[in-house]
Amino acid sequence: MENVDDVAACLVEVLGPVRPGRLQKLVYYAQAWHLADHSEPLFADDIEARKNGPVVRRLHDQWRGRDGATGGGRQGGGRQGGGARARPAGDPARLGQRAHAVLAWTVRSYGPLPDDELARIVRIETPWRLARKGWLAARRSGKVIDPKVMADYYRGLRTSAETAVQVAVGSARLEGYEFGPNSADRLREVATGTRTADDVIAELVTRFGTP
């Protein structure tokens, strides 16, 4: 099992400076997909369902009070935002090959998302929502997100195209949006691999001018 400091340091080495809140979410997704694909955690630390998203307390305590970018590793000297930088205490070189593969996939899948989109997605997904159940939106909670719920939820997204579509439609409904039959069919085509997301986006751009 890997050390969460090494995991965070690896993400920063690849991405360059990144804000602590964003890094916490990427660490969460690395843990989630490792659980889904390998049926065991990437690191031992619990992940808490805080009001702004998942948090590893150990990392939070390292970066407490830092609103600026988190920088470290070989690319840690870049500039982003303002304020002091925290440097993850870990060493990416200590990670195994499987961990590097999961982290690379996490960066490819979630790295391009803007901060607000990443925060919205993680908070409408089942693991965080279940852990926050019964808590007021503004209240701090240290309740741990259940690793089994994480494994089952993300494994379902990986293995079942129909489940992925149902989750996407349900998540959109929670945000006040409704998918029509045609939109759901497009999602299903992407999920089953019969069309690429780029093809669907290109179709929408042609039809409406924006995705």
Describe what you observe in this structure.
The protein is mainly α. The chain folds into two domains: 4-145, no CATH class; 160-211, no CATH class. The chain has ten helices and two strands, in the order ααββαααααααα. It has helices spanning 4-15, 20-38, 57-62, 97-110, 115-124, 126-132, 147-159, 161-174, 181-192, 197-208; strands at 48-50, 53-55. It has a two-stranded antiparallel ribbon with strand order 1-2. A hairpin with a 2-residue loop joins β1 and β2 (53-55). The longest helix is centred in the N-terminal third of the chain and has 19 residues, at 20-38. The protein is globular, with a radius of gyration of 18 Å. Residues 72-84 have low confidence and may be disordered.
Question: Could you name the ranges where pLDDT drops below 50 across 5 or more consecutive residues?
Answer: 72-84
Averaging pLDDT over every residue, what do you get? 79
How would you classify the helix and strand content by structural class?
mainly alpha
DSSP summary, beta strand count: 2
**End-to-end Cα distance:** 41 Å
Radius of gyration: 18 Å
Enumerate the strands of the largest sheet in spatial order, edge to edge or round the barrel.
1-2
Largest beta-sheet details: 2 strands, antiparallel
Strand content: under 5%
State the order of secondary-structure elements, H for helix, E for strand: HHEEHHHHHHHH
Counting DSSP H or I runs of 4 or more residues, the number of helices is 10
Overall geometry comes to: globular
Number of domains: 2
What helical percentage do the residues reach? 55-70%
